[in-house]
Amino acid sequence: MSVLLQFTRFKSFTIWDVKRNLSSLIYSDYEIVTLGNYIQEEKIKVKPFEYPNDDFKILGVSNKIGLFDNEIKKGKDINQAYKIVKDGFLAFNPYRINVGSIGLKTNEQKNNLISPAYVVFSCKKELLPEYLFLIFKTEIFNKIIRANTKGSVRQNLSYDILESLKIPLPKVETQKKLIQEYKNRLDLANMQKKQANKKEKEIEEYLYKELGIEIIKNNKNQNLLNFVRFKNFDRWDTQSNSFNLNQIKSKFEFIKVRKIIENSQYGLSEKANLNTNDIPMLRMNNIINGELDISSLKYIKFSKKLDNYILKENDVLFNRTNSKELVGKSAVFKLDGTYSFASYLIKIKLNFDVIEPNYFVQIINSFIGRKQIDAISRQITGQVNINAEELKNFVIPNPPLEVQNKIANHILKIKDEIKELKQQSIKNKTLALKEFEKRIFNDT
How confident is the model at residue 151 (pLDDT cuts 50, 70, 90)? Predict the structure, then answer.
C-alpha cells in the first residue's frame, strides 16, 4: 500500500517545484542517498596565459563518447584560467547535461584541462566514479536531470542542484560487480563488431582469390614512358586516366561496363515529402554497405510521369553524386512494393545473359570499382560526380555466369553473417546499459 501524503522539511528542497521533486522520486533495492554527500566539486585551475609559449592539452565532452582529447593550444591563445581534470574526475557541460554531455576522465585521455564553463567534480571513497558515470547514462536518471535543469532559454544544471539529486548506492563491492557485468556485455558487443570488420576484409580476399587478381607493383625495370592510342580515352586528363589496367592481372578478361548495360537512367529531381501515402523515393542515403536501407524514406506524389521512374527487380542503383568516400556506392533493387529513385542516383538495367547483377554490384563496390571511381570522380562544390558515360567506361573482370553466381552467392552469405554480427553488437551494447539500469532501479 503506497503512501499518498508525505511531509517533507521545506529546507530540504533546493528548488521548490512540484514537478522537479516528484520526478526525483526513485525506487531501488539499494539505499537511496543524496548525491551531494558523496561528491565534491573540483575548482583547482591553472592560468595558461602566464606561460604563453607552453602547450596546454585541452579536453572536450561529447554526449556520445564522453571526455575526449580535444586540442593542444599555446598559453598565449588562452585568455582564462582552465580547470584541472584528474583521472577519476567527472566533468559535464551544464547546458548540455540534459542530452548526456558528461564524461569520466581515465588514463585513456592524455589531456588534463577543461574550460571553466564545465562543472568538474570527484567522488568520495564510498562512490565509484565509473558507477556514477553509468548512473548518468541511464534513462531514469536522465529524466531526473531533464526535470531539474533550469533556465527559460538555455537549460542549466548547476552543481548545487546536482548535489540535491538522489541515487541508489550499493556497497562498493556490489558497485564493482555491476560495473564488471556492464563491461562483460560491452566486451561481447565489441568482439562481435571486430568479427564483422574481419569478415568485411574476407570479401576482398575472396574476390582476389576467385578472380585470380594480382597487383603488379612498380619496379625499377618498368618503362617510365608508355604509348597509348588517343582514341582509347574518353577524357584527356591525368586524374581520370590514373587507373592502369597494366597494374592489375586477372585470370578472366576485363570488359567495359557499356558492353553489359542495356540502358541507364537518371532519377527524379522533384522535391520529396514525408507523406507515407505517396510513392517512396530512394535517395543516396538509402544505399548502405552495398544494400538498400529503407529505415529513412521520403516520398513523391504519384503522376503519369512517375511510370518511367519505377524500379524493377534486379535494377542496379549507382550513386553518381556524393562525398569522395561515398560516391559510386551501388546496390541491387530487390524490395517488395513500388519505389522510385532520386536524381543523384543512376538506374542501370543489365544484360542478364552476360552479367549477374549481384556480382556486378560486388565488383563496383570492391577495390576494383573503387580504384576507378577514385580516378574518374570530379569535384563539384564539395561533392564529387560521376556521370553515366564515365560509368560505362569502367572495366570489370568477366568470368562465366556460373562463376559470377558462385562469387555473388558466397559474398551475400558473408554479408548476411556481417549483418547478424552487427545487429548482435548493437543489441548487446544497448543491453549493457539497460541491464545495469534494471539492476539499479525499480520501476515501482
Answer: low
Three cell numbers, residue 394? 569502367
**φ, ψ dihedrals at 13, nearest 5°:** -100, 130
C-alpha cell at 123: 567522488
Over residues 206-225, the mean pLDDT reads 70
Rounded CA-CA distance 319/326 in Å is 8
pTM for the whole structure: 0.76
What grid cell was written down for 171?
Answer: 556497497
pLDDT at residue 376 in the model: 82
Burial of 328 (0-12, 13-18, 19+ CB in 10 A): buried
CATH 3.40.50.300 is held by the domain 202-217+236-404: no
CA–CA distance, 386 with 376 (Å, rounded to integer): 7
| Domain 11-169 classification at class level | alpha beta
**Measuring CA to CA, how many Å separate 275 from each of 290, 338, 343, 345?**
27, 15, 19, 21
Task: For residue 378, give the H/E element and its range.
Answer: strand 378-380
The pLDDT of residue 245: 62
- Residue 121 and residue 104: Cα distance in Å, rounded? 10
CA-to-CA distance for 372 and 382, rounded, in angstroms?
20
The listed range with the strongest mean pLDDT (6-10, 246-250, 260-264) is: 260-264
pLDDT at 269 over 50: yes
